[in-house]
Amino acid sequence: MNNLHLTAEEERLLGGQDGDGVALAMRVIVSLARLERAPRLVEITSAHVDSCLYHGQVSLDFAGKLVSLGAQVRVPTTLNVGSMDLLHPGLVRTTTDAEREVAARGRQLMAAYVDLGCTPTWTCAPYQLPHRPGLGEHVAWAESNAIVFANSVLGARTDRYGDFLDICAAITGRVPYSGLQTTEARRGTVVFDCGPLGKKFLRSDLAYPLLGHHVGSLAGGEIPVLVGIPAEVSEDDLKAFGAAAASAGGVALFHVVGVTPEAPTGRLDQLPRHEVNLETLRATRRRLSTIDEGELDAISVGTPHASYAECERLADMLRDGPPLTLPFYLSTGRATRALAEETGVLRELEAAGVTVVVDTCTYVTSILSPAWMNVMTNSGKWAHYAPGNLNVDVVLGSLEECVTSAREGRVVLHELGA
Q: Residue 2: pLDDT band by 50, 70, 90 thresholds?
């Protein structure tokens, strides 16, 4: 047993003076701290909760227990996707008993987290919301792509917090001072030289999900340092990279030299080094895509949730040219959808035949038809998970390739780097 130091206030929370709900959450946090041999706890400024996605009765039981004990979050707390699109419930399939159970209990679970005081954001991309943590802030974020973005792009500090730990951190306002909450754990451990990919390719949106999947597959739980990435790389590109790296491996933090706030500025000769070239990423696309030609049944983009800039870009692509011949799904957050509605972008997307999904994502909820076998996406994360989750074949392409393929009804891919 390590010598975990608790402040007087933390002892009070653990002892139940603020209620049994807080005491329960505090016991979970303290147990984790002792397991990780943390010397103390650290106060957090915000939380992002993934436990609101229904995974079975235990999900409801834990949330319901906290509600019954009167627990409330004590820091601003956003919510990840749930098992329903609450704005468009008709999109969620409920033809089987299992689907009806997930829909009903998923809705109950989402309501329970609102009862706990969480903000009903229902997005896997909380970093797209107006209030996001800054450099050095300690937070407790769950959901792998949110974690890696907060650590890497924002420079906030969060370890990987899974279901139940996330809401306990929000209720207590504390997490163990361990892992990526500490300075020493945030140093890069392996270098990936992306220079051989060339600036032209690195300015394409397809570069980043492919690069993320490749880096994640090799790095595992290491902290990659990327060199050779253009300084003007967008947050959407970094989002795509991080999401793919976190799903292919255990990457929770990466550094991009000259771009991200904690990236090293000195020599990197002492670290293991990998060179990435176009042939490497061509092979990565072949591994991620279970098909590379033939007819398609649907397109699904927006995993992680599409930003407003991505919605605008899709609307621009659809403004001229042939109509879509395939079902086309775009997943995004409520806040982004509201802005798109205000500016008219939503109207353009829907008029072009795009189905906009909120509150959830198409690879975790029964939205796509079970008869569809071949689906295209621009997301490395969706391509990684959908074959197992949905029993579909998948092909990964750029957003432009997705639009062209949706118009022609078949896979249309361009040579990488051409």
A: low
Q: Spell out the residues 6+ positions from residue 410 whose beta carbon is closer than 8 angstroms to its own.
A: 293, 294, 295, 296
- Domain 290-408 falls in which CATH fold? Aconitase; domain 3 (3.30.499)
Fold agreement between 8-184 and 290-408: yes
Q: How far is 251 from 261, CA to CA, in rounded Å?
A: 17
Cβ atoms 92, 355 nearer than 8 A: no
In this structure, how many other beta carbons lie within 10 angstroms of the beta carbon of residue 75? 18
The phi and psi torsions of 178 (rounded to 5 degrees) equal -160, 170
Is the entire prediction scored with pTM above 0.90?
yes
Rounded to an integer, what distance in angstroms lies between the CA atom of residue 220 and that of residue 414? 29
Burial group, residue 200, by CB count within 10 angstroms (0-12, 13-18, 19+) = exposed
Which H or E element spans position 224? strand 224-227
Question: What mean pLDDT do residues 303-310 have?
Answer: 98
Measure the CA–CA gap between 368 and 331, rounded to whole angstroms: 12
Architecture of the structural domain at 8-184:
2-Layer Sandwich (3.30)
Q: Is the dihedral of CA 3, 7, 8, 9 positive or negative?
A: negative
What is the rounded end-to-end Cα distance, in angstroms, of the chain? 58
The domain limits of the chain are 8-184, 188-286, 290-408
Q: What is the pLDDT of residues 84-138, one digit of tens each?
A: 999 999 999 999 999 999 999 999 999 999 999 999 999 999 999 999 999 999 9
